Amino acid sequence: MFKMEPDSTTYDISNSSKDVSFPFCVGQCNLSLYKHFVSGEKNTEIQLIERLQTFGLLPKTILCLENKPTCKVMCKSARVVDRVQWICEGCKRKQPIRIGSFFYRLQCTMVQALQMILAWCEDADVHVAAEFFDVKPRVAVAIYDKLDELTASELSNTKLGGEDAVVLSEMYPDCLNRLSPDTTDQPHVHQILMMADTKHIPTHYRFHVMKNHLKKVSNSCNEESLQEEVENTLSSVTHGNSLVVSGNNIPIVDGTASIAQLVQHCDVEMQHFLSNRIWSQAITLCNASRDLCSGGPSLLCASTVQRYLDTSLYRLRYGDGFYEHMLKIIANKFTDKYEICKEE
Ligand SMILES: [Zn+2]
């Protein structure tokens, strides 16, 4: 498939990939997939590209821009940063190997991009990872931003609950002193509506950072719009046929049951789980999100917190193996698929 010429400038990554060590913890599944992409002895760039194509992160074939009957685009080695490019045998037009993919116009090598995606999956600090992998901070931040956006859009496509499912809701930090003692000194800046789908193990959560308290409204309308925001969030995040249960710190919303009504039918252990333990992981994330609040409450701050919570809970949902999950999402969203007519 590939025609290679000996090239003394070929960068050998085989040594660095044998003993992989990172300035952050990496799960076994994530690490082995990463190694699968970058390991190899000879022609590592070619192997990398073949593996990325097989995985779906690069198109296996593309169309020539000229698109004449004589056009036939081939992969050829070239003195470019990726060592390989698309060249049309008919009209000689060249296109980057990264065209129609996540890597297109990214100002780092494809290996560096794979490294930054791995770092993001492992919740590594963006600046620590950028420095370690020698990626420009601006490029590293752009990759992290893209992944956070992907996560938010994936989450918005999924809903909690469904037929015969119970979705619990509770308000942070209002619930704190009852559920677990508040031991931090940081002020409670944001109210966060927490939602938990009891059907899944581990529990599927969703968070909504409330905007209501950010509006400087001091009249009695305030109560009403808080209730409205809760109502709108619950209906957009849950399937219509779920049983939605309001916690003790949630304003009463039409069509929901109260936690008191729910637990009266449960045994003591289940009662404890539904009213307390189910929230422990969610509260841990909400507590951690307080670090992101700089000064007073603002919408910008709220969206930073929202992004952190979305990404964190999505990461928790997939655990080790998250790297593969994210790369598949990237492949689906970014890689162009061309329908090539087979002419016999
Ligand atoms: Zn052509």
Can you offer a commentary on this structure?
It is a single chain. With 344 residues, the chain is of the alpha/beta class. The protein is built from 13 helices and eight strands. It has helices spanning 14-18, 28-38, 44-55, 110-121, 126-132, 137-156, 176-179, 221-237, 259-263, 268-275, 280-289, 299-318, 322-334, and strands at 73-77, 84-88, 94-96, 166-172, 192-197, 204-209, 243-246, 257-258. The strands form two sheets. A five-stranded mixed beta sheet has the order 6-5-4-7-8. Strands 1-2-3 form a three-stranded antiparallel beta sheet. A hairpin with a 6-residue loop joins strand 1 and strand 2 (84-88). Helix 2 packs antiparallel against helix 4 (110-121). The longest helix is centred in the middle third of the chain and has 20 residues, at 137-156. The protein is elongated and about 75 Å long. Zinc ion binds next to loops.
Write the layout of secondary structure elements.
Blueprint: H1 14-18, H2 28-38, H3 44-55, E1 73-77, E2 84-88, E3 94-96, H4 110-121, H5 126-132, H6 137-156, E4 166-172, H7 176-179, E5 192-197, E6 204-209, H8 221-237, E7 243-246, E8 257-258, H9 259-263, H10 268-275, H11 280-289, H12 299-318, H13 322-334
Parallel strand pairs: 4-7, 7-8
Antiparallel strand pairs: 1-2, 2-3, 4-5, 5-6
Helix pairs in contact: 2-4, 4-6, 5-6, 6-12, 11-12
